[in-house]
Amino acid sequence: MTRETKKRTEYLNWDEYFMAVALLSAERSKDPNTQVGACVADSNHKIVGVGYNGFPWGCSDDKLPWARDGMYLDTKYPYVCHAELNAVLNSTAPNLQDCRIYVGLFPCNECTKVIIQSGIKEIIYLSDKYADTDSVKASKRMLDQSNTGYRQFHGKTRQVTIKLFVDE
After folding, report:
1. Whole-prediction pTM value?
2. What is the mean pLDDT of each run of 10 residues along the chain (168 residues)?
3. Which residues are annotated as catalytic?
4. DSSP labels, 105-167
């Protein structure tokens, strides 16, 4: 008599998988204060873009400022490309119509414009800690008017551990 082998039950669902990819991408950010990652997935559950917050290509991480406070040109804000922008720009798909974007932090108004214009239909975010800012309020106004969905991520898996070595 043969024993029936059952599939594993403790696996990541699609939302957990893509959010984990977004959070893993955030680990590439060199920003000393805020690390954000984004992952774009299409309707067939294929990753078509990833990104994290950092300076544009060719701009030195050592020569531009990482400060949050001070004169505008002496802070990171005029220079940093947000994770969502990078995920859209890094996309391998011919278009992002009907895709979803997973991101660690609710998008600012500038990234929201890019998301809407790219055709992404839904934002799944982990944190909305800046919900009371004008930037996020503007984002939500644009998303509501454009019928672009957004929802906070609630996964059943609390933690994913990745070992970057092999036990020998």
Report:
1. 0.92
2. 82 93 97 97 97 96 96 97 97 95 98 98 97 98 98 85 81
3. 84
4. EPPPHHHHHHHHHHT--EEEEEE-TTTTSHHHHHHHHHHHHTT-EEEE---S-------SS--
